Amino acid sequence: SSGQEKGSVVFDGSTTALFKNGLKVGTLNTALTFARNSLFEDFYNTTFEVNGVSVDGETRNCLLNIKRCSPKIEVKADETGVSLFISLNLFCNETDETASSSDATNQKNNLIPESILKKAEENFTESFNELVAVMKETGCDFLGVKEKIYRHNHRYYDKYKDSYMSDMNTYIKVTVEGQK
Predict the structure, then answer these.
(1) Is 120 in contact with 127 (CB distance < 8 Å)?
(2) What does the buried/exposed string (b/e) look like for 7-20 if buried means 16 or more CB atoms within 10 Å of the residue's CB?
(3) CA-CA distance, 170 to 160, in Å (whole number)?
(4) Cα separation of 139 and 122, whole Å?
(5) Torsions phi, psi for 45 (to 5 deg)
(6) How far is CA 179 from CA 36, 50, 99, in A?
(7) Residue in 47, 41, 64 with CA at minimum distance from that of residue 118
(8) Which residues pair with 84 in a beta bridge?
(9) Sign, Cα dihedral of 173, 89, 41, 25
(10) What whole-number distance in Å separates Cα of residue 122 and Cα of residue 19?
(11) Range in 10-14, 26-30, 89-93, 109-113 the model is least confident about
(12) Do 40 and 92 form a contact (C-beta atoms < 8 A)?
């Protein structure tokens, strides 16, 4: 017996442990885990907060529900270096402008103010930049850049296999759209 009551343990996938060569080298917090996961799944019906946005002179917080998510990670290598292209397109609707936690029961088909959409884009862009910084700092290639060089730019693999993180330029494009 584990000493725990049946049903008393809840799996928590809100953080991600990072490993390199079998050793733990870091942890992604909840926001970075969400950002990383958004790059590997075409997911929907997931909510995220956009806080401290000015709308018509008033500061608001809101909860957006992702109705469609289209992520893409590309890696290109050439004589000048390695380029990582991250793109994410989200289509959202507003769930509840006053909600303090995820609750998709109050979905609205209202127009989402442009300032909220822009703030959401800025938040994701900032998270993706932070993800790349953590990847470089820890040496943990959780975006699969080295594998993508090997598979899609094989003739440059030997040149960059040991230095691709330091030779890598990152380009990020995030679009968040709502009801029109």
Answers:
(1) no
(2) eeeeeeeeebebee
(3) 15
(4) 25
(5) 55, 40
(6) 25, 17, 20
(7) 64
(8) 75, 170
(9) positive
(10) 28
(11) 10-14
(12) no
pLDDT per position as a tens digit, 95-117: 765 545 444 444 556 788 999 99
Cβ-Cβ contacts under 8 Å for 39 (sequence gap 6 or more):
71, 73, 86, 88, 128, 143
Any idea which residue has 């469609």 for tokens?
68
DSSP the chain: --SS-TT------SSEEEEETTEEEEEE-HHHHHHHHHTT----SEEEEEEEEEETTEEEEEEEEEEEEEEEEEEEEETTEEEEEEEEEEEEEEEETT-SS--GGG---PPPPHHHHHHHHHHHHHHHHHHHHHHHHH---TT-HHHHHHHHSGGGHHHHTTTTTTTEEEEEEEEEE---
Residue 174 binned pLDDT confidence (cut-offs 50, 70, 90): very high
Paired tokens of 69: 């998510």
d(CA 91, CA 55): 20
Tell me phi and psi for residue 34, to 5 degrees. Answer: -60, -45
Which residue reads 């990847």 in tokens?
135
For the chain, what is the radius of gyration of the CA atoms?
19
